[in-house]
């Protein structure tokens, strides 16, 4: 048996850029990636299922998870906590399977501290005007909140340099294809297959 850890992929970017949309489209196609379902204190939206979209927690439960060190990272975002479960991510990577996180920017920067070998992908909008249109058309924010999110987005876009890859979300399918290319290219980079051949030859 060849022991090889899986790769941790992190998709991040400003609010409203389309992270959720791209992630869902990616997972609708066949992929070997394992999606890490986050914990949150936000209330479920219509149609959302506990354990599928998120693990929905009370604030007390969430704070307990933080103190127990059960989260790799957590962030407070628009009044709610969001966090990545440690056990699932570490266990899955140790089984040699790739894990995919879709999280906001503060959390992604924290993941980088613990998983420097992770692959960080930053999703950007084709333009700030387009980002504004997407946030407005989603219809989940008041005018004031749209303004705040755009201000935050400008600061977040400045953090682009901290990432390994930048993907422009012009068309969903283009963005999904680019993410898939990144996954493929990272596999080649780490020479998983080459490594396996080498090992197999050594064992002969
Ligand atoms: N830091 C962090 N952010 C997360 C996590 N899970 C989801 N998010 C981000 O939290 C933000 C809010 O998500 P959500 O409430 O589902 O609303 P959305 O804005 O419609 O995607 C999005 O930017 C998600 O990418 C997590 O585990 N940690
Ligand atoms: N490539 C795209 N072209 C047009 N609209 C998009 C695209 N990607 C996402 N959207 C729309 O933009 C809005 C924000 O997307 P969402 O996935 O909720 O963003 P995020 O998860 O980054 O906050 C949604 O209404 C979504 O349908």
TrEMBL record:
Keywords: ATP-binding, Cytoplasm, Kinase, Nucleotide-binding, Transferase. GO terms for molecular function: GMP kinase activity. It catalyses: GMP + ATP = GDP + ADP. It comes from the Bacteria. It is an enzyme of class 2 (transferase). Pfam families: Guanylate_kin (PF00625). ATP binds at residues 13-20. InterPro entries: GK/Ca_channel_bsu, Guanylate_kin-like_dom, Guanylate_kinase, Guanylate_kinase_CS, P-loop_NTPase. It is found in: Cytoplasm. Residues 6-184 form the Guanylate kinase-like domain. Its main location: cytoplasm. Its EC number is 2.7.4.8. Belongs to the guanylate kinase family. NCBIfam families: guanyl_kin (TIGR03263). Essential for recycling GMP and indirectly, cGMP. This is Guanylate kinase. It comes from Halobacillus kuroshimensis.
């Amino acid at each position: 048996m060849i022991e090889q850890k899986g790769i941790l992929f992190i998709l991040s970017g400003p609010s409203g850029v389309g992270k959720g949309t791209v992630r869902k489209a990616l997972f609708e196609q066949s992929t070997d990636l394992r999606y890490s379902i986050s914990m949150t204190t936000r209330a479920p939206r219509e149609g959302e299922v506990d354990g599928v979209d998120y693990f929905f927690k009370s604030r007390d439960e969430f704070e307990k998870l933080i103190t127990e060190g059960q989260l790799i990272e957590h962030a407070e975002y628009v009044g709610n906590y969001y966090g990545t479960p440690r056990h699932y991510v570490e266990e899955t990577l140790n089984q040699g399977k790739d894990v995919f996180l879709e999280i906001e920017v503060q959390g992604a920067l924290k993941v980088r501290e613990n998983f420097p070998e992770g692959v960080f992908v930053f999703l950007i909008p084709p333009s700030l005007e387009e980002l504004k249109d997407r946030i407005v058309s989603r219809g989940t924010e008041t005018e004031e909140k749209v303004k705040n999110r755009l201000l935050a987005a400008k600061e977040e876009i400045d953090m682009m340099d901290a990432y390994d890859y930048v993907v422009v979300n012009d068309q969903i399918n283009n963005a999904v294809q680019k993410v898939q290319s990144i996954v493929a290219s990272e596999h080649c980079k780490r020479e998983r297959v080459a490594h396996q051949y080498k090992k197999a030859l050594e064992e002969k």
